[in-house]
Structure formats: structure tokens, C-alpha cells
Amino acid sequence: MQPTNGFYGEFGGAFIPEMLYPNVNELENEYQEIINSEDFQDEFRNLLRDYVGRPTPLYFSKNLSEIYQTNIFLKREDLNHTGAHKINNTIGQILLAKRLGKQRIIAETGAGQHGVATATACALAGMKCSVFMGEVDIQRQAPNVKRMELLGAEVIPATSGSKTLKDATNEAIREWINNPVDTHYIIGSVVGPHPYPDMVAQFQSVISEEIKVQLKELIGNENPDHVIACVGGGSNAIGAFYHFIDNGQTNLIAVEAGGLGVDSGKTAATIALGKKGIIHGSKTFLMQTNDGQIVEPHSISAGLDYPGIGPVHAYLADSGKGKVVSVTDEEAIKAGIFLSRKEGIIPALESAHALAYLEKEKFGKDDIVVVNLSGRGDKDLATYQKYI
Amino acid sequence: MNQLKELFENKEGKILSIYFTAGFPELNDTEKIILELDRNGVDLIEIGIPFSDPLADGPIIQASGQQALDNGMTLELLFQQLKNIRSKTQIPLVLMGYFNSIMQFGEERFCQKCAEVGIDGVILPDLPLEFYQDTYKALFEQYGLNNILLINPQTSEERIRKIDAVSSGFVYLVSSNSITGSNKDLSLQNEYFERIKKMELNNPKMVGFGIHDAKSFDHATKQTEGAIIGSAFIKSLSDRATLETKIEKFVKSIQGAKNILKEANLEL
Ligand SMILES: Cc1ncc(COP(=O)(O)O)c(C=O)c1O
Question: How far apart are CA A191 and CA A203, in angstroms?
């Protein structure tokens, strides 16, 4: 699933101020060659294996399979170093930044998972790291702020707008405009101007690459019937879908955060409610007013609390190649507690959205269903606690 | 139409352009601000379309945009406010905003409205050169709308040539690697301004971002036709005085430099 001239159908592109053109253009000219080089691949693959802990297991969940009368496999991205899929991307981008001769890294974060994964990669690579985080999220996700600081990163509060993920992203982009030469911006999902969505998708595609090999080994067939993943910006989802797109066999199911309900006015269900527009340099669906003002979303999970969606998902949804559904805060919490009790795995609230979809569709008895468990739930204990 | 062309052809001395955010400080200040700026001898006005997520803007313009949105400002309303503006002033007017606002309004409808109320040009920082050229240039030209593109210190010579070829009205020289409202030291930018001047572009050059007083205006316009002041003007509007007083005081504080320059030019 490669973009053509930076676009997936009509979605994507690089709608950026001219001030960012040199940076983005440098990336665009260099990224594919660097990523394809043997030297990069060796270093990337070795770090994924020895440092991140890949491949992550594809675990056949006997208990869930019995309950839902189908065959459910969990892709255990929660077992990655730092506890989520986010590190696949930050390791890739830090290696790229080094090869571009950059000395300093900036990043945005919502839940703090991407911030922690970036701070980790920076510590490893010996790079200076500044992470922008909305003031509201700094309050909501205090443990991750402490982790970033322990890892040597500077956490800069984003105090503009609604003081959450979209504003942290704005602040990171502004900081990049102010420091175009020595700084690389590690964006945390398949969002932002081209080539970011494609680059991040390539780094995350290791998820479906492994699923293929693992399924082949476990059941003799590399293609599942269904892959389910949650979508904030869409990086874990595209990683889990990547090698199954257009295979004519696999249903790709992206689960958005419905918040209090799609029609409640407090939701992050971008595909369900969004209109075409531009956010953070990319043409995609986004939640906005008639006047084009971007609307602050709501989700119980800070990592899904994004008013846009990666352009590749806008394309998959618009073209019918993928299916987009949503589950509510309450359904996600229930699914998270359910998995904790039935399997002894505490999922991130983001990932709990993907699990919650198991209640919504009746899968065939012989179907192979892969749920991408994008992260672990330690960071969400304070939220879970209110419901148990 | 095309007051922009006329301005650059006929103006002696340096051109002062002022940016303000529509709907700030009060929802219906738009016309009054335009007329006061005109009355005080400003040459060109940029009207900012407030946007929730202005990527290229610093804290002052962000805050003014947020206040304007809280006041109830919309692009729809802005066109209503400008409906009769051409019966009152012929000062060149440029709209500045982010492309999402125009997309939601409807690109063609936007051009139509601009032509209707007498807007001379637009500055849309996040509508990139190539995309504009391939998708919208013909449309903008059909409605006689100048599209003013940006250049910054990192822009390559090759790209500057392309931008100059596609821009009309003027080209916008971003003063340094920065968002709006940063007061970086412009004396470090001499090499940049000189380099651009030597390129002898087709379009006049206006410098913007971080011009905040007579001194920086003077500095920015040594090698260019004029400069644009935004954040510093918006900041001056937060004074308690009446709009008339604030605007007069601010423009005078800059005009001082312009007049001195003019005299210096006369002596030459
Ligand atoms: C565990 C986890 N899953 C999912 C997401 C959502 O991001 P994306 O849609 O890019 O996978 C996040 C974001 O913080 C996360 O931490």
C-alpha cells in the first residue's frame, strides 16, 4: 500500500507551510533509499530483535475463542519494550534521523506512549529529545511524564487550543519550523505530511509481516479471515493490515473510539462523523465545524483522542477496502476488564477498543480472527480502577 | 481591479502592510479596523481568517484567532462584513488563512466571494506550490485573485524561481526560520535579504514574520519593497484605549521610520 506522489487516492499529500518544505522534501528524497539500504535494515532488524523483543508472540486465546465460538489470535504488541507498538516506529525513525545527520529529536504525544518510545530511542541513540504534550494530557498521564523525564527527555507542555494531542502536534510542527536544520520530528502515527504516513506504515508493517509467518506456522495458512485493530491516527492498525491489503481474503476492521456514542457530541469516531479536510498537513477525514474549525474529540483513551485519521485509513474506508466501526468508552472498559479476567492480560484502553468489537460481530466457527493488542494497560490503571 | 499591482507600481518609499485577525478584538471590528488603518496611511491590509489550528502562527496570533472564534467569527460572516467595503476604501486587501477554511467554504465559492467583495489576493501558507499550480491556479486566475506564495531562508534558489513564476501580487519573504511573532534578530538576515534582492524576481518582495517596530521595519525594507506587521499590531490592540487611538498610535510608531527613510531617499 504505497502512496502515489504522496497521495492515497485523494487523501494525504503535504499541505505544509513553505517553511517546512526543505525539511519534508529532504525526508521525501531520502527516506526510501535509506530504509531500503542493507545497512539500515541490518541495524533496524537487530534492534527490533534484541532491544524491542521482536517477534512478538501471536497467541491463540483458547478462552476467548471458546466464548466467541471462533478462533481468536492476539498479536502481542503489548510485550514490546516500553509496552506498545509505538517503538517499532521510533527505532526506525531514530536510525533515519542519524543518517540524515540530525542532532535533536522532537515529538508529540497524547497518552505518552509515543513520547516514552521516542525518549527511549533517543536515550539509546544519544540524541537530545523534546516531547510536546498537552497540558491536559500531562495531568491525565502523569506516570508517562515521569518515565520520559527519567529517560532524559524534556517534556514541554502544549498550552494552546484544547491542550491535548492535536495541540501538542501543532506545537511540535511549530518547533520544527523554528529549528529546521538540526532537528528531526518523529511523528507518532501514520499522520502528518507525506512521507510520514508511508514511512511510519513501513516501520509498523513488521506487525503483519510477523503475523503471516506465525499463522503459517500455527495453522498452515498465512492469511487470516479478519484482522481487528484500534485506530487513533492508525499506526498499529496499518501495521497489522499492511501485508493483507488487497489479498482478497482478509477483512480489515478498524475500530474507532466512539466515546460516549457516535451521536453524543463526545466522540473520536472520525470516519463516522468526519468530513474531508486538512489536518497537520494531510488531506483526510477530520472532525470539524461547517466553518472548518477542528473539533476537539473525546475518548476515554488518550491515545485515540485524535480528530483526524491517517490518510491511508481514509482511503481504505472510502474505497471499501477496509471496514471502520466504533465502540464506546463503556464497551472498551468492559472488554479490557474481560480480557484481564479471562486471559490474565491487562490491555491498554486503546487496544481494548479492538477487543470490544468481538462482541459486535458474529464470526464463523472456522474463521481466523487476529486482534492486534497494541499495548499494555499499566498506564491506564487509574481509569480501570474507577470501573472495578 | 488589481489594486495590488497599482500599489507596487505607483508607491514611492516603502510599503507598510498590517495584518489583523478578523473578529478580534470584537466580532464586528473588521470594517472599522480597515478604515482606520487606511486613514492612518497604511498601504496594504491583510485580513486573517481565524483558524483553530494555525500551524505557522505564534502565540499572539493564535490567541487572537481563538478569541475571534469565541466571538463567533466565521469566513461566511467575514464576507458579509466586507460586502460594502469597496464603497468606502480602495486600499488593497489580502486574505490570509489556512486552506482547510477555504476547502470547507468551497474553493470556487471562495474565489467568487473574493471577487464580489473586492479582495485582491490571498496568502494560504499551507496550500503548497505544486498543488496550487496543478489544482487551483486556473480557478484563482479566472476570478482575478492573486495568490501570494512564501519564501523562507531555507528555500533553494531553484524553488524561489518557481515560486516567483507562480506567485502574483508579491512574494512573501518569511524573515527567518520562524513562526509569526518571534522577534529573532533581523540583522542576522542581511545575507538572505541581499541574496533574494540579487535574484531580481519578477514580483515585488514583502518581508513578514517578526517585524515589530520601526527599527525592524526599517531593517526589513532595506532590500525589499516593504514589510508586513502582524503580531505586534495585534498586541497593541489589547490596550484599553479606543480602536482609533490604538491604531493611530501604532501606525505612527512605524511611520516614523518610513518618513525618515523617505527623506533619506530624497536626499540621494
Ligand atoms: C497502545 C496504543 N494503541 C493504539 C494507539 C493509537 O495510535 P495508532 O492509531 O497510531 O496506533 C496508541 C497511541 O498512543 C497507543 O498507545
Answer: 14
Phi (first) and psi of residue B227, to 5 degrees:
-145, 160
- Express each pLDDT in A115-158 by its tens digit: 999 999 999 999 999 999 999 899 888 899 999 999 999 999 99
Q: Is A77 touching ligand 1 by the criterion CB < 6 Å? A: no
| 3-state SS class at A76 | strand
Q: Which atom in ligand 1 lies closest to the alpha carbon of residue A348?
A: 1
> What global pTM score does this model have?
0.96
Q: Is the pLDDT of residue B258 over 90?
A: no
B11 φψ region: left (φ > 0), alpha (ψ -120 to 50), beta (else): beta
Q: At what angle do helices A21-36 and A86-99 cross, to 10 degrees?
A: 100
For the stretch A348-369, pLDDT in tens is 999 999 999 999 999 999 999 9
End-to-end CA distance of chain A: 42
Pairwise CA distance, residues A270 & A230, whole Å: 12
Helix (H, G, I), strand (E, B) or coil at A161: coil
Ligand 1 touching residue A90 (CB < 6 A) = no
- Mean pLDDT across the stretch B49-65? 96
What spacing in Å lies between the alpha carbon of A294 and ligand 1's midpoint?
21
pLDDT in tens, B175-195: 998 899 987 788 889 999 999
Alpha-carbon dihedral sign for residues A44, A47, A50, A56 = negative
A17 and B100 in contact by Cβ < 8 A?
no
ipTM beyond 0.90? yes
pLDDT in tens, A33-83: 999 999 999 999 999 999 999 999 999 999 999 999 999 999 999 999 999
Pocket residue to mutate for ligand 1, from A56, A86, A326, A380, most atoms within 8 A of Cβ: A86
Nearest atom (ligand 1) to Cα of A114: 14
∠ CA A339-A345-A348, nearest 5°, is 85
- The span from the CA of B20 to the CA of A232, in Å, is 35
CA of B178 to the centre of ligand 1 (A): 31
For helices A142-150 and A113-125, give the axis angle rounded to 10 degrees.
0
Residue of A nearest to B66 (CA): A161
Q: What is the pLDDT of residue B255?
A: 87
Nearest to B62 among A13, A160, A177 (CB): A160
B260 CB within 8 Å of a chain A CB? no
Q: Judge: B126–A15 Cβ closer than 8 Å, yes or no.
A: yes
Which sequence positions of B are flagged as catalytic?
46, 57
CA distance A156 to A284: 28
Average pLDDT over residues A240-251: 97
- Mean pLDDT confidence for A251-260: 97
> Which residues in chain A are closer than 8 Å to B159, comparing Cβ atoms?
21
Can you tell me the mean pLDDT for B238-252? 94
